[in-house]
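Page 47, continued from p. 46.
Same chain as before, 334 aa.
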Amino acid sequence: MKRISILIPEGDISLSNVEGVHHIFTEANKWLERKGKPSGFQIQMVGKEKSSTMKEGYFSIQPKHRTFENMVSDLVIIPALHTDVHRGLEKNRDLIPWILDQHRKGAEIMSLCTGAFLLAATGLLDGKQCTTHWIHAHELQEEFPKVHIIHDEIITDECGIYTSGAAYSYLNLILYYLEKFHGREMVLFLAKVFAIDINRRSQADFIIFHGYKNHSDTQILQVQDYLEANYAQPVSVDVLATKVALGRRNFERRFKKATKTSIISYLQRVRVEAAKKQLEIGSENISEVQYKVGYSDPKAFRDVFKKITGLTPLEYKNKFHIMDPVKAYSHSLQ
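Result:
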């Protein structure tokens, strides 16, 4: 039997992570019992205090175990930190020794969404791949440069250290973990019970691109603003460099240092984000959208769009185009 310790940090954390994880592992035990097998998981909640209150006092969790107790875990799960992740991290740094102690005793460690900030603070992610909510990927990378952030994935698994992407991506990670130890049959059953798409492996199509501007290079900020306002126009790197009175090589170096990406990649993401918005709400066909965002070559547009979102423009439109909800539901039944 595996001992699953759900850690309850102080402050505003994801209640859905805690309840959802507990629910899935409980159903996994029931499945094993129906198969005539012993329960596979002992689920325990662990906190610094006997009670943790959150969401402005509307909810509370009462962990049965305390971090000062002499206990052993096979898996420690760190839920997402909500509201201000940096404040949540500072409030819970005293949990780091306990997490490291559990890991030294043989426990695997799993972070859900922004729980990756607390996991990264332990040092256990140094040199390893990690994912988190795409909104916080740049912040996580900036604060923990030794961690290899894979911002478009919803699951990472490296040497017994697991992470999940945005919000409800944790559902896929828990099923992935269960499949590793109990096989596909259990996971298929749980996926059907909880209506989870087990084939989802990327959060790329959900990412909303916002250029990284938390830097002090005013000349590069000027170029970012220009690209976001003029993405449909032909763009020359040499002309952009001239606009801010920089040599090309120096300009490219400073742009990448400030924005964490190249000029061409930045422009592609700005254009694709504009195309996504038009595909979601507009009535234009793919070709019209392509020209509106600055592409004359249909293949180039399709290739860049799929590289960034994981979907073709048509697939994206079919998935995200805003329709009247009644009509959309009726259409799905046809």
